[in-house]
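Onboarding guide, step 5: your first structure request.
Type a short instruction followed by the sequence, for example:

Predict the 3D structure of this protein.
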Amino acid sequence: MTVGHSGRRHFLKTLRVAALGLGLSAGIGLSGFAVAGPDRTIVTTTAQVGDIVRNVAGELAEVETLMGAGVDPHLYRPTRSDIARLARADLIFYNGLHLEGQMGDVLDRMADDKPVVAVTERLDESRLLAGQSGTSRHDPHVWMDVSAWMEGARTVADILAETDPENAATYRRNADAYLRELERLDAYVRDALGSIPERARVLVTAHDAFAYLGHAYGLEVVGIQGISTESEAGVRRIEEVVRLLVERRIGAVFVETSVSDRNVRALIEGAAARGHEVTIGGTLYSDAMGEPGTYTGTYVGMIDHNATVISLALGGTAPPDGLNGQLQIEMN
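The system replies with structure tokens like these:
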């Protein structure tokens, strides 16, 4: 079973079943599968996906998110209340690409009677990065590349418009406004990270969640753990990264809000034992956003924070208050 691609299989199955039941052709539209307008409930798995849906749906839907701040989606198992919320939903959006690895069976079951859509579903494969070595899976952390995540917003807008055609113009208008905001964010991240000196453009983090960031904005990315936090970092891997820090005189590493800092601390101690001082450059949001109701509890705030913290820690010239003047990054 493949979570990242099963959404399409079950979605098409839903279309076929409904079409047969109504005596229609398999080309039936999505409007027959969801409650239209403000009475419908949409459930999302992660806060990043939820942020897209809230911005595009606006007041036309009640949006609920299962995973909150600091929650690791790789390890997350749905509770009974989560399953009940999913069952009550009219529409479900999730990240896909195996990010929600423990939720695959539940999402598959839900797709038998309602639209269950991965926001990465329509992303061109040429934009996807390779995942864990030894597997055919892609890296699921697409949101780290703002321009790629914009495609997810377009997918959400399309699905909402197709399932509620009477309000299609509103969804399109909301999506256009959100995409303009993301275009501005993308330009800021490019400038902030582009200001880091060439010799310092190495990002060392707790797990390999930042490959899309590195690929899009020109950073070399090194994760202690693999793409999924299910894989533990061994002693050999920690020694490899310590050697990299020492040989290349890298002075800062980064912890993550949703991953233990144990391995990062081990790096610092290992480098110190070899006579090289390494500091924690800051805390980054990787698999989860900040607390709801805060600036970093939004996708824009999350990425703004990450880009600003990385830039300043590695010698760049990003403004300490970030893109929108809402950060308070302390410079070492």
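Each response can be followed by summary notes, for example: Residues 168-194 form the longest helix (27 residues).
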